[in-house]
Design brief:
The protein has about 575 residues and is an all-alpha fold. The protein has a domain at about 20-285. Helices cover about 65% and strands about 0% of the residues. It has a two-stranded antiparallel ribbon. Strands 3-4 form a two-stranded antiparallel sheet. α1 runs parallel beside α12, α6 (about 130-160) runs parallel beside α14 and α9 packs parallel to α12. It is globular and about 75 Å long.
Amino acid sequence: MSWSSLAQYGFFLLVVLVLVKPLGGYMAHVFSGERTGLDFLLRPIERLIYRLTWVDATKEMNWKEYAIAFIVFNFVGTVMVYLLLRLQPHLPWYDAAHMTTPVTPDLAMNTAISFQTTTTWQAYGGETTMSYFSQTAAFAVAMFTASASGLAVGVAFIRGLVREHTDKLGNFWIDMVRALLWLLLPVSVVASVVLVLLGVPMNFNSYTVAKTVSGATQTIAQGPVAAFEVIKNLGTNGAGFFNVNGAHPFENPTPLTNFLEMLLIAALPAAFVNTFGRMTGRLRESWCLLGAMVFLFVAGTIACAIAEQRGIPAVRHLVNESAVTMPNMEGKEVRFGIGGSTLAAITTSNTATGSYNSMDDSYTPLGGGVLLTNLMLSEIVFGGLGSGLYGIILIALIGLFLAGLMIGRTPEYLGKKIGITEIKFVMMYALAAPLSLLVLTAIAVVTQPGLAGLVTNSGPHGLTSILFAHASSLANNGQSFAGLATNSVFYNLSTAIAMMAGRFGLAIPALALAGCFAAQGRRPTTLGTLPAYTMTFGVLVVATALIVGLLSYFPALTLGPILEHLLMKGNL
């Protein structure tokens, strides 16, 4: 691993950590209803929205009402996106000459669910399938609203740990509107201008037909890319305006834009941990959770970078038998190199953002295995907006429950008891992911429609491709191994099921758990209480995450990337 790559990784983490306190404090002010510098402009707009939508700003919801509002809002959004896609040929900016991929009912269904769950899984090429109108009116709008609704669930979860003897977690509509007005929209406007200045296009021009040096004809797609690019990263969505996503020079032209776009992905989820600390009055505990996230991020980055730097032995010997190492540059852009590609791969696979700038399918078995493992950890390393925080806390609760069993004491977290009811919701959360992922993958590898997607890969790599597709959908991430053809009825249905399980199957137990915590009082700290801010607690969180992940997925990983690595090294 080169020193320049190490410097890039270190500087990226440093900037993220520097932004944690100011961004975390700002979000705490926003969601606590405290004054901010944007109130003079946004308060009137907020009141107007409530008046037009008949939202009672004084009414709060219990966890069931909050969950219903969350589900209904996302259902309506999914239907709206579906209808816009089905009506695309009759709407503005539809270019029939270049829209060569038909939007079938199953593809429209899959894509609508994808964008409304922040997965933005794309079984299509953007420039050959979707019009400018679909990209903006359907996709960009959905990325804003879906991100805001996910952040609202995270805020409600925090309130469950803060409040006592109540069943109220806040108001979903208010939390979502404030996430949109005070956070996502202002940052998107500023960041979009910066990307335009750095060379990302922002227009509604027709596709340009040009002659290449060799005399061939090339069609160059354009569009309102800058605005789309910001919310896809900021909202941990990840959709590509173009087919190759962040590898396209219009989406991500330079190493500087790559760095800024990765920063947009990680900054808010990392800062939201600080928001949790401020709203609960437990900053030390929040720094401990963030430390666990950073440790897992660093470990994954180093492992993936080393694997890609060493490359593939067969290729190295074919090119230069005397070479000790030869980096694996297949599927990577030269302008990013190993460093920028690995940074993007790790950042996007750790969050719910599939904004990759290199082809995951071309990574070494261990490099791709690291990305797959990140997806299987269910967004606990920074993660998506809101989901990253409650994901790592629920993992911590599993560890606390097991530790409590060992010493014969009822476990607790921040003074809230983890009793029978609470641990049932925790286990519902913990089991939803492996049950969905492993069952869907098993069906795919034993049925003809599932195996039909393996157009270029077979064996362990083919299994990894199928496993990666469903893990990415479950993690609401959206990136994929390009060797798997997924625009079929089978995969459009199976990935849609995984996306809904990853969104609602995890968020609803988290809200239910928050409701249980809010109804409790706060237990006093005693000598038997395990402090949630020590190194011991941080180790417990990391160990629990790895143990739960290994128990759930190690056999699948063994048959996929691990077996492929051993075959590549000639050990089998």
